Amino acid sequence: MSGPNTDYDPVEVTPLHAEEVERTRDEALTAFTEAADLAALQEAKVTYLGDKSPIVLANREIGALPPQARKEAGQRIGAARKAINEGFTSRLAVLEAAHEEQLLATERVDVTLPWHTPQLGARHPLSLISEQVADVFTALGWDVAEGPEVEAEWLNFDALNFQPDHPARQMQDTFFVEPAGSGKVLRTHTSPVQARSMLTRKPPIYVICPGRVFRTDELDATHTPVFYQVEGLVVDEGITLAHLKGTLDHFVVSMFGEGLEARLRPNFFPFTEPSAEVDLLCFVCRGASVGNPDRPCRTCGSEGWIEWGGCGVVNPRVLQANGIDTDRYSGFAFGMGLERTLMFRNGVEDMRDMVEGDVRFSRQFGMEI
Amino acid sequence: MRVPLSWLREYADLPDGVTGREVAEQLIRAGLEVETVEESDLTGPLVVGKVLTYENEPQKNGKTIRWCSLDIGKDEPQWVVCGAHNFEVGDLVVVVLPGAVLPGGFAISARKTYGHVSNGMICSSAELGLGDDGMHGIVVLEAGEATPGDDAIELLALRDDVLDIAVTPDRGYCLSIRGVAREAATAYGVELKDPADLALDGSGSGGYPVRVEDSEACSVFVTRTVTGIDAKALSPRWMQKRLLASGMRPISIGVDVTNYVMLELGQPIHGYDKGQLSGEIVVRRANAGEKLVTLDDQTRELDTEDLLITDDSGAIGVAGVMGGASTEISDATTDVVIEAAHFDPIVIARASRRHKLSSEASRRFEREVDPLLPRYAAQRVADLLAEYAGGTILPDETVVDTHPAPAPVNLRADHAARVAGAPITLEETVRHLESVGCTVEAAAADATAAPLAAGVHAPVLAAVGTTTVGTANVQADDLLTVTPPSWRPDLRDPNDFAEEAIRLFGFDNVPSILPAAPGGQGLTVSQKRRRRVATALVGAGLTEVVSYPFTGEADFDAMGLPADDNRRTTVKLVNPLSDEEPSMQTMLLATLLRTAERNVGRGATDLAIFQTGLVFLPKAETKPAPLPSVAHRPSDAEIQSLYDALPDQPLHIGVVLTGSLTPTGWWGKGRPAGWADAVQIGRVIASAVGAEPVVKNVELAPWHPGRCAEFSVDGKVVGHAGELHPKVCQAFGLPVRSSAVELDLDALIAAGPESIAAHPFSSYPVAKEDVALIVAADVAAADVQAALAEGAGELLESVRLFDVYTGEQIGEGKKSLAFALRFRAPDRTLKENEVADARQAAVQVAVDRFNAVQRVG
């Protein structure tokens, strides 16, 4: 190429023609749009934006134009290059997104497949219900008290107004510890923990005592020789039977919600005077089996009610034996079986399921009851 | 106590038409435990028939049936087939007609049999639900007892509901129709016709000679004599029926009458054949070596504490428990001496337990019988024997009575309201106490109440009002003097009387008030840590189970415990459920392995279970636990000796792992649970409570001798973990290489921190160094690691074992342990030479201590 063409006639330089520039631009944009994948787009880029591309070559020609024409051509070429660049970039974004999408699609897995790290295990529901009861009462400000299972006979019976030859002491089907006359038994109820609480604490006493107890029953659908109880004891000034009822009402609502109903009916326990039985409406038949031989209920023996536990105003003799000033304090106590509670609360139909240690029993509960 | 409703109605004027179930409902509210109500399923027609004719018709099967025509009060006779032969033309019998249902649900229809159409049948006692009356045939009514066509259901009171009541120990008086009738009458507000309200015709003296040597044990002894009875006479059908309904078998008139009166009044009666008595009746304690053949033909060795009824021949009965065979009433008896006595409940309870003999009599005496009853009960027996056995009642009567009158008790007039926290008015209190039979008076001016305070709910005080007792106006804080009735020896304390007033006031009417406890502190540290351990194990995939704590030699043998292992020294039970398992567990695994066995047997071969529970460790010296007085708090020393007498009972946690921890799956091969998992679970348990255990190899059953880790904290062994001995797996039917953990959870919890102080941590760069050391194969990795940590000094941030290698390159009997060490300073970037020095110092301690050789390259 010789020096600048001073006789430049813009009309004669075709690449700088407005029509030619627009055609080249449109051709480039079409090529980008038609590029099906990143490789095709890259090829088109070389063609329309590469060193040999018409728009780059045209750009070089600008310098050869007379000064008066350069500005106009420069603007035209610049606008076209910008449009081609933008066309490339936007197509690139589209194709890259499509490429990534396709790649991720090939990585799809079946998320329903199992994995090998251990599943969560399970608590035994007796533990869970015991903890739930404890939580209900700690929320009221009570303490959770505990004691040993091999217990002094005095704490299991005498301190609780079970006199040595009283028939009530025989009713309890006690396991005695060797040698005979050792004065030791497997506790027949959690009540010795109440005695221990009175011997070691000063009123006001508000304690809940969950624990395992023992009686010489044979295992069947409704009995087990080893079972769990929870007992509550309050010793304070001015405590009455009404306070007992209020506490049981709160307890029932906390454990069962609405619907099932409890009743108190007079009974006898050496530990309390007056004493009452706490019954709950049968959770299976809800009383429908009573007097209805066509619909017998195995769970409640068609009685309609299930014995839940016992309760009463602490016998002042018990307070005396445990060193509580009966001029000042009175108390109430209640106790119930946790297996039985679980039975009507969660529909467990057979006591044996609860005591045999079959993991399937615990697992159906997980960590909730 | 089984109570036929018809019998109850005789003494309590219950409203017409009330059913057994309704009565039961009322009695339950009054505090009687009515366990069941038996409702008769009998429906008629069931009528009285008169035998008009019968033909004996021998059958091919060897039987002879009778083809009978009966007058059942209709125009035409009723024709039926009957297999029995104990009736004649003209006899009155009970005929069930087609359409009826007999007890047990037997529907009757006209049916063809033995060549006839039998339109119903003639009934036996058993078929009517009356039990076997010993007649071996059908029921034949007395001539004139009824007319043909009469409703036999009504005539024989066949449809009778029976209430079965579990009588609580304080309500001995309810072991009688009299007592239950009293409760029923009170519940319905109707009149009680006291069956003991009898005309006494005894002279009060001159009866069979009796001497009571122990008047504390026997405070009342009454005898009456009835002569010339026909002992072979059957007791009347109504009496038999009631006895059967009450659960007793009719035997003979003499026996039946005594049982009947016992059920009716609650007073046990003993009848003697007067002809078999020799000389004076003496009530005394047994002499050493004395024996007695009781009514059940058992020879009983008597204890010197036993209270006996004796005559010149020796013992003729264990008082209040069971009579002797030699003087019992027989078919040949003509003259009867009736004994009605009052025995001390404890004396009877002990004798009954000693001889393992719980009789209808002892059950009642143990719960104490109304001491005023004996004369009336003896009269009732005599009356019935005179009426139904043709006897003659002698007016002569023996009455020994030293029983003290019931003691009056003083209590505040508002005591019941204060115990209940309910507005029981003074008027109600007095009325309820009177209705249970108490005598209520205003107390003398100088009377004091027993110092047994009751609670009170403030609004209650305003509501109790005043009342009039006798001529006195009684206010809330006045005292009442209440005398319990003779049949309520359980009423001794103010609260006993309060209970009577409250139960009749109605438990349903007592308000419900939640008491406000003072602020608590929630669970104890130990309780919280136990929950954390359980939660951590569940997070690790373990499932909690429960097991009974009973164990025995078979379990110890299966676990391979040596003969002298101290875990075989147990707390034993006098009366275990099974003679094979007389011991309380000394380790949880004794019972948890059985639970694992059961699960594996049920198909759960991949098992990861845990359990917490007490173990029972006898003390070196076993002392009996004392039985201090209950009149007051035991002394501190007495309380301490109560506690000291008990075995140690720490809380343990046990774990059993069997089969695979990770199953084989699409990810690849599964991983069996092994010794290392067990040890790791032990570490998880420890860290859940913040304890830092030291672990080392030991040999201990039931574990594999080379794969058992001992855990200790603060120098005290707290348990073990590892693979079970192959023989143990075999003995418990567990998969090979099952593993187990047992730790003293109490001890671990106690080793946890009180609180944790935070340490600052450095933000300067870390310097990492790896060290490989060759040591003898039996050197514990944990010890080498501890040596490195000790030598590296305070710049060491952490040390972790990342490889164990054994092989030819390092020689036999050796192993190479590779550790990753991280160093960091709190205040600067470490220089290369500082790190190198620390590393070398660490290695040097291992070299010095274990002859370790650094492995290079």
From TrEMBL, chain A:
Metal-binding listed as a keyword: yes
Essential cofactor(s): Mg(2+)
Claim: Cell membrane is one of the keywords in the record: no
Binding residues annotated for Mg(2+), in chain numbering: E273
Compartment list: Cytoplasm
Molecular function GO terms recorded: ATP binding; magnesium ion binding; phenylalanine-tRNA ligase activity; tRNA binding
Catalysed reaction equations from the record: tRNA(Phe) + L-phenylalanine + ATP = L-phenylalanyl-tRNA(Phe) + AMP + diphosphate + H(+)
A Gene Ontology BP annotation from the UniProt entry: phenylalanyl-tRNA aminoacylation
Alphabetic keyword roster: Aminoacyl-tRNA synthetase, ATP-binding, Cytoplasm, Ligase, Magnesium, Metal-binding, Nucleotide-binding, Protein biosynthesis
GO cellular component terms listed in the entry, alphabetical order: cytoplasm
Entry's family note: Belongs to the class-II aminoacyl-tRNA synthetase family. Phe-tRNA synthetase alpha subunit type 1 subfamily.
Name of the protein: Phenylalanine--tRNA ligase alpha subunit
The species this protein was found in: Kribbella kalugense
Gene: pheS
TrEMBL record, chain B:
Membrane-crossing segments per the record: none
Biological processes, Gene Ontology terms: phenylalanyl-tRNA aminoacylation
Annotated ranges, domain TRNA-binding: 40-153
Cellular component annotations (GO), alphabetically ordered: phenylalanine-tRNA ligase complex
Superkingdom, taxonomy of origin: Bacteria
Domain FDX-ACB: 762-855
Residue sites binding Mg(2+) per the record: D490, D496, E499, E500
SUPFAM superfamilies found in the cross-reference section: Anticodon-binding domain of PheRS, Class II aaRS and biotin synthetases, Nucleic acid-binding proteins, PheT/TilS domain, Putative DNA-binding domain
Keywords noted in UniProt: Aminoacyl-tRNA synthetase, ATP-binding, Cytoplasm, Ligase, Magnesium, Metal-binding, Nucleotide-binding, Protein biosynthesis, RNA-binding, tRNA-binding
Broad enzyme group: ligase
Entry annotated with the keyword Methyltransferase: no
GO molecular function, one term: tRNA binding
Cellular location(s): Cytoplasm
EC number: 6.1.1.20
Pfam families: B3_4, B5, FDX-ACB, tRNA_bind, tRNA_synthFbeta
Location of the B5 domain: 404-512
Catalytic reactions of this protein: tRNA(Phe) + L-phenylalanine + ATP = L-phenylalanyl-tRNA(Phe) + AMP + diphosphate + H(+)
Cofactor dependence: Mg(2+)
Oligomer status and interactors: Tetramer of two alpha and two beta subunits.
HAMAP family, sorted: Phe_tRNA_synth_beta1 (MF_00283)
PANTHER family: PHENYLALANINE--TRNA LIGASE BETA SUBUNIT (PTHR10947:SF0), PHENYLALANYL-TRNA SYNTHETASE BETA CHAIN AND LEUCINE-RICH REPEAT-CONTAINING PROTEIN 47 (PTHR10947)
Family recorded in the similarity comment: Belongs to the phenylalanyl-tRNA synthetase beta subunit family. Type 1 subfamily.
Protein's name in the database: Phenylalanine--tRNA ligase beta subunit
Gene: pheT
